[in-house]
């Protein structure tokens, strides 16, 4: 009868008035047929296999679920591979070739999963449906159809885009979402030629801002690896320029970026206006003067485009020749060449590995160069960092006292915190604000990746969300690598008088 859903008979364990009536009907039918009662007229299980009964302890009414869903999936798969009772043949034609792949399918299943198929099936003239696909999509089409029948899919990194295209074209939203999630979770996976750049380009093309930003963030936070990979040469001009703008890039040094830019330009030979734009995005103030001398002499790119960046180099050498504060007294400067990125080299900061981080407070000292200016290159600053696994904000503590309760013990509540302070003060610090950045690694798909970057002035308390979702108490926390927390602390001197536009 219309409106009736035969499948709900199987779910006899459910509750509700409707279910009750149905169970009731069964019983009556059972009685009526008593002597020659034939079990197979009862809708117990559509399968003859002997799957183990699954006892659901929490189930109401003491009912038991017979779960044959895996078997059903298997049947569906067979239906597709054998093509029994097929009422439509999909002729998947590879674009611009005469290659055709034929799949015996079932309009009911296709219609169930995709309204695009529904429309195509309604408007077809005969039992064949011709679908024209790109070679990449045609290559994964049978995987795609199998998903429509079975609801699961196995894929490799290089198949994600083609499958995503098919899921979008035929409006199979669940698959499309699953693939987007797969991509954001597999950015760090190994692939011989790299995949993140092509995923980024695809995200840009389809306007998926979330995927695009995930790719961009991954590339920015893992730039040293990317610069050394074969993928680097293949990045588009737009992607190159948008990476060069960012201050959150994590890499060894600005010199590393310049050298990678030079090799990208050699490989891609863009027009000279692009080369000039790219060269002007390098932060020359962050490259020590001895390296700038060498580049001026030995980098063919710099020799050729010297005029386009002459003003920036001049500014960089002025910056290196005296204290940045002196420079700021005399010149109005408004550009990014004095803003550090997240450099991993030892003059800027230090790695910090904290074993069993929840155990107790930990402190750590390290040294950095006072600043990137050549004038400061021989001056060192010692920093003390203190990590507290369960630090309580002041507001939380005062509540306890007002209530007259006991001081909270160290184990209850509290959040991780890091504070970084200089070991001694110095007149050199005048006019400089030291921005601290803590880079937090985590394990994803067995790989160590950068998971978070926190910026603060003195305490991670300022960031508000420092390690909030890390759950360090849990042994299996993805933030723990061999039960340790892997951090890298970077100290970035900011000369506000140089950076802030002056009237
Ligand atoms: C049936 O079994 C499958 C896998 O064997 C499982 O994923 C599914 O949740 C089960 N369904 C029920 C209702 O227990
Ligand atoms: C499906 O078709 C194959 C061969 O075309 C046949 O051997 C098999 O018995 C059929 N299965 C069912 C369930 O009808
Ligand atoms: C079906 O046939 C009509 C008329 O013969 C034709 O105009 C139409 O394009 C055909 N549709 C398809 C999907 O082949
Ligand atoms: C960087 O990417 C490589 C693969 O390209 C991966 O193995 C590594 O874990 C990534 N590292 C970080 C810090 O994201
Ligand atoms: C400083 O530079 C920014 C970005 O390049 C620009 O938007 C701003 O107008 C500049 N300010 C002055 C005072 O030159």
From TrEMBL:
InterPro entries named among the record's database cross-references: BACK (IPR011705), BTB-POZ/Galectin-3-binding (IPR051481), BTB/POZ_dom (IPR000210), SKP1/BTB/POZ_sf (IPR011333), TRAF_BTBD17 (IPR056184)
The BTB domain, residue ranges: 86-157
CDD domains registered for this protein in UniProt: BACK_BTBD17
UniProt cross-references to Pfam families, sorted A to Z: BACK, BTB, TRAF_BTBD17
Protein name: BTB domain-containing protein
Classification of source organism: Eukaryota, Metazoa, Chordata, Craniata, Vertebrata
């Amino acid at each position: 009868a219309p409106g009736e859903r035969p499948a709900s008979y199987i779910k006899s364990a459910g509750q509700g008035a409707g279910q009750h009536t149905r169970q009731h009907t069964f019983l009556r039918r059972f009685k009526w047929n008593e002597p020659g009662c034939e079990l197979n007229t009862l809708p117990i299980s559509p399968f003859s296999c002997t799957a183990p009964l699954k006892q659901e302890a929490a189930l109401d009414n003491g009912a038991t679920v017979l779960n044959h869903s895996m078997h059903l999936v298997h049947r569906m798969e067979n239906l597709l591979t054998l093509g029994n009772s097929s009422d439509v043949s999909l002729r998947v034609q590879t674009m611009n070739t005469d290659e055709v792949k034929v799949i015996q399918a079932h309009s009911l299943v296709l219609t169930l999963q995709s309204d695009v198929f529904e429309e195509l099936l309604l408007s077809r003239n005969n039992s064949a449906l011709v679908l024209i696909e790109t070679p990449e999509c045609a290559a994964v089409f049978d995987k795609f159809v199998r998903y429509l029948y079975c609801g699961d899919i196995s894929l490799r990194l290089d198949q994600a885009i083609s499958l995503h295209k098919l899921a979008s074209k035929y409006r199979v939203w669940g698959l499309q979402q699953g693939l987007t999630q797969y991509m954001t979770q597999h950015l760090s996976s190994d692939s011989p030629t790299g995949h993140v750049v092509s995923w980024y380009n695809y995200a840009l093309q389809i306007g998926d801002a979330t995927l695009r930003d995930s790719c961009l963030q991954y590339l920015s936070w893992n730039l040293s690896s990317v610069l050394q990979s074969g993928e680097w040469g293949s990045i588009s001009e737009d992607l190159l320029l948008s990476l060069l703008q960012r201050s959150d890039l994590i890499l060894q040094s600005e010199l590393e970026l310049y050298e990678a830019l030079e090799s990208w330009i050699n490989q891609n030979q863009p027009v000279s206006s692009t080369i000039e734009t790219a060269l002007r995005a390098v932060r020359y103030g962050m490259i020590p003067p001895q390296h700038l001398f060498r580049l001026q002499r030995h980098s063919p790119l710099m020799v050729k485009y010297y005029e386009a960046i002459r003003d920036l180099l001049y500014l960089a050498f002025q910056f290196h020749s005296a204290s940045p504060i002196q420079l700021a007294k005399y010149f109005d400067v408004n550009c990014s060449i004095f803003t550090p990125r997240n450099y991993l080299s030892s003059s800027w900061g230090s790695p910090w590995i904290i074993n069993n981080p929840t155990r107790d407070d930990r402190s750590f000292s390290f040294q950095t160069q006072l600043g990137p200016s050549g004038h400061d290159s021989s001056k060192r600053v010692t920093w003390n960092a203190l990590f507290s696994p369960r630090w309580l904000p002041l507001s939380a503590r005062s509540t306890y006292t007002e209530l007259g309760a006991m001081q909270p013990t160290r184990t209850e509540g509290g959040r991780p915190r890091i504070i970084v302070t200089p070991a001694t003060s110095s007149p050199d610090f005048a006019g400089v604000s030291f921005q601290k950045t803590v880079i937090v690694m985590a394990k994803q798909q067995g790989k160590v990746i950068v998971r978070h970057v926190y910026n603060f002035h003195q305490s991670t308390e300022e960031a508000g969300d420092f390690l909030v979702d890390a759950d360090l108490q849990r042994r299996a926390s993805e933030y723990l690598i061999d039960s340790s927390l892997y951090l890298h602390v970077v100290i970035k001197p900011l000369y506000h008088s140089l950076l802030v536009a002056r009237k």
